[in-house]
Amino acid sequence: MAIGSTTRRGAKVAMTVALRSPSLLGALIPVDNAPVDANLKGDFRKYLEGMREIEEAGVRKQAEADQILKKYEDLVSVRQFLMTNLMKRPQSRSLTLRIPTKTLMLSLGNMGDFPFKNPDKTQYKGPTLFVRGTRSHYVADDVLPVIGRFFPKFTL
Questions:
Q1: 0.85 exceeded by the pTM?
Q2: Are residues 50 and 156 in contact, defined by beta-carbon separation less than 8 angstroms?
């Protein structure tokens, strides 16, 4: 079984694995994401700028990182989520990002893409449960027919 969520593009990765290598999975549960190209919300660039500032400042503590992120995000829960990407490497006293901001900035334009374009050509026929929030804009009603073509045994 593969379960993926939007937090790190996991749902699209799980769907891609299901379509590329269906024999690896017995079931699929994509959470709050759909098998379509999607524009990322405008906050991503702002968050990356904050994370870049954290890297450049050479912060050593999460509290220092949080002070910087306050300029970019008011909600403490979002700041805490962003800080889960920080880690301390053995060779450094400063906190660093798991993936450098430069790499993320260069990939930002393609991050919401889905690699499969023709649902009539590639399908995953195993049981699939799509989970979406009641206010989700990632799994809109208008993409349900596409989901059904890629994943004919899906439930919502």
A1: no
A2: no
Burial 61-94 (b: 16+ CB within 10 A, else e): ebeebbebbeebbeeeeebeebbebbeeeeeeee
Cα–Cα distance list, 124 to 28, 29, 81 (Å) = 9, 12, 32
pLDDT tens by residue, 77-127 = 999 989 999 998 888 889 988 888 888 888 887 878 899 999 989 999 999
Q: Based on the number of CB atoms within 10 Å of its own CB, is 3 exposed (0-12), middle (13-18) or buried (19 or more)?
A: middle
